[in-house]
Amino acid sequence: MNQTKEISKEQVLKQSIEWWNPGKTKQWQADGVDLVIGKREGYYFYDMKGKKLMDVHLNGGTYNLGHRNPEIISTLKQALEDFDIGNHHFPSINRAQLAKVLAECTPDSLHYSILSCGGSEAIDVALKCSRYATKRKKFVSIINGYHGHTGLAVSLGNERYSKPFLSEGSPSEFIHVPFNDLQAMEAALRNEDVACVIIETIPATYGFPLPEPGYLAGVKKLCEKYGTLYVADEVQTGLMRTGKLWGIEHYGVEPDILVTSKGFSGGIYPIAATIVSKKAGQWMNEDGMAHISTFGGSELGCLVAMKVLEISQREEVVQNVNFVSRYLGYELEKIKQRYPEFFVGIRQLGVVMGLEFDHPEGAKHVMSSLYENGVWAIYSMLDNRVLQFKPGILCDKNYCDELLERCELGIKQAARKLGY
Ligand SMILES: Cc1ncc(COP(=O)(O)O)c(C=O)c1O
Question: Which of 141, 261, 269, 271 to mutate to test the pocket of ligand 1 (most atoms within 8 A of CB)?
């Protein structure tokens, strides 16, 4: 990478503190993660000074198909021959085609696609659609849920992110209920004044607690009973990461709205989509100009996203994700049995995994020791006991074996350090 020759890592850190984000830059340094990402390829990336890391955070699934996936790069290069961002005012070949493909590969309940630049924007669109469709203002989300940082999305989540910006939202408008609690959900919906319930199918930032059998289907039933829409946030759980294209398919729920982003970009071109039922998208028949996003649904991004959907649904890819999930699940269980006091749980659906440790900040320590051992995975921000462990759907057995070896070392070192 030429740039690394022109600028030193120390200079990048200095400039980041001066001009980019002082708090974030300093925090990672304080946490012992002295990282400035340089070269990246497949499921590996390198620090500017050369340290090689296995990426099992994947930026929440953004690099589901690997860093700089050659097929995605070639799709974008090809797209640049004929297209640019496009003009959001007018119909276009690529937007129309992507919307059709999305309608075909999402649950039957979904029809129109509204295209955005990123996950939070797409979540805000989902919320707006639900308000228009129901003429109700309230939203229900789960305690410790996370749906992004834009105006509406940030108020759905934990105060950790909304309070600093005075964006908590009125508690009567943004209702938070415990996950896996149908009684609390019914109490919140009973007054028939809630526009939508929004749930990330397996909440990542909360450490991937799995929905209890019947929970999500029960929520959908309650939504139908009380005239509320169901929004599935599939920003992290979509795109074959659970072994099905959408995580929600495992739970027998046909949502009214589904949101995809992160991996939808192929890690190359930012794009997100809010796929809505005819009812939730009715506003587009009445006032199609009511929502606008200049860069949302860039024609370049549309072509990239279609390639992502095509790759993710290939038979060999489905077989691979099933193999990787089974293999890692089985081998991690064996590691867990070797450190039973410390490594106490594995939450898993496909390659969406949370590794649970006994210590209240166990995953923070495991993150550090994995980093020392060449593995990059992040603890769950809202449950520091759980490490988000998210390999890519194209990785092979050799990658898994290297990962398992390094993970065992890291877990062993963290356990020792914490006195287990
Ligand atoms: C589940 C979920 N929803 C929404 C978002 C917001 O996406 P973005 O950061 O692209 O705005 C994220 C981002 O991490 C996410 O994990």
Answer: 261
